[in-house]
Amino acid sequence: MYLLFSQVHEFEKPNDEAALNLLNSCSAAVLEEFPDIIFAYGYSDEYSFVFKKTSRFYQRRASKILSLVASFFAAVYVTKWKEFFPQRKLEYTPSFTSKVVSCASPEVLQAYLAWRQQDCHANNQYETCFWMLVKSGMTISEAQELLKDTQKQQKNELLFHKFGINYKTLPELFRQGSCLFKKKVEETVKHDENGNPVKRLRRKAVLVHSENIAARSFWNEHPSLYNDLGHFSKDIGRVEPDFVRSFQFENKLLPLTWVVVRIDGSHFHRFSDVHEFEKPNDEQALKLMNSCAVAVLQEFEDIHFGYGVSDEYSKIISAIASLFTSTYVIKWGDFFPRKELKYPPSFDGRAVCYPTYKILLDYLAWRQVDCHINNQYNTCFWMLVKSGKTKTQSQDYLKGTQTREKNELLSSQFGIEYNTLPLIFRMGSSVLRSKEAVAVENGVVVSGKKLKREGEVVVDHCNIIERGFWEEHPHILSYS
Ligand code: GTP
Ligand code: MG
Fold this sequence. Notes:
The protein has 18 helices and ten strands. The protein is α+β, with helices and mostly antiparallel strands.
């Protein structure tokens, strides 16, 4: 993804300083957001975040953790874009993939970090040679051919003799990558009535460069690292191939099953409060969510949610969660033109495999029933609160009530016929590729307009529990 992204945005080759600084600043935000992340190391377009050994973050559920970090990272990336590229428009929505690597001992962690930094060295040295050759007039394949099988030493000599570049003097940011860890700093939060500063300790991310981040000397200089992550007992050179293989392990989804990825807003209770979403349903907020789902379907045209495809699960959920999140931040202003986005939202994701068509439809029906139950409860609850009851009184009032009683309450006390409320609230939203050619705006079918091509992504608020829907739209879950 990032290769195309960096081409479209004309990043400098082989290294774009502003792009690297943007990534570093996003990673600093990740460190400050998640208390259990102790250390981060990154170069080029990747970053590794090391959690403290005793972390219980999300009960150590890999899917939640990896998707949440990718999602938050993406939100910060699009938020900070203009700070680092004031003259350049963000041309399209970035997404990031992530995975969890478990390191069972400090030695394994040390090997992992050494592996990433050795990759940084090798990668940067190759790219520096490659782009110098191309800039000096060689074609891409000529440059590739010349560099094939060359050793480190030969590359250094090439740079020195042909281009007068002493590799060792190139910026550390490019050669060594960047490390981040946290330091406690005292900060003035406000002043009291007498004008005295009120101070608070905050953990602030600090950036350093180091020749060897897996060296004992580097580790021993920073108590926060060895205290939370452990001591390195000796220095290492080459990383054991077995370790590398274990780091590259991919957890694939069960083949020949329906893969469902569900994402969920993280702490959206607070997010909805801070942004004063209407209760119980904020139509604009729901439409914003829908347009993000549309973007996911448009972007991942070649991810088949259909039968018989498997892929690495971490890649799927992190890519979807992060694309959804960056779309959310980018489109916020379209849906809330007069409301400022106060802080970056994040979404977590999980993937489940369903072995049969019937179980898949059961799953979808379960979600729609949940939507109905929640919406009916929330509609009653907020009407009661708005009519003067406290939240506890309203909860007690609704305890144990059935669907029919809730409908009667709405009708008799508030003159609301539940079944006439907007479908988007009662049914939720389905996003699908249309079979017929339709005209769409923001994912909504509009009549009386010139028809677009078929396969357009549309939003509908249909009843997906009834068989009829699936019989009318056999193409959605076709066995192709
Ligand atoms: P975690 O998912 O565990 O991080 O917590 P959460 O706060 O996101 O809660 P949960 O996912 O269980 O529920 C979503 C919450 O989002 C609801 O409880 C509401 O508070 C809020 N929410 C979602 N949609 C709307 C909306 O349209 N209007 C308002 N006012 N709140 C909403
Ligand atoms: Mg939530």
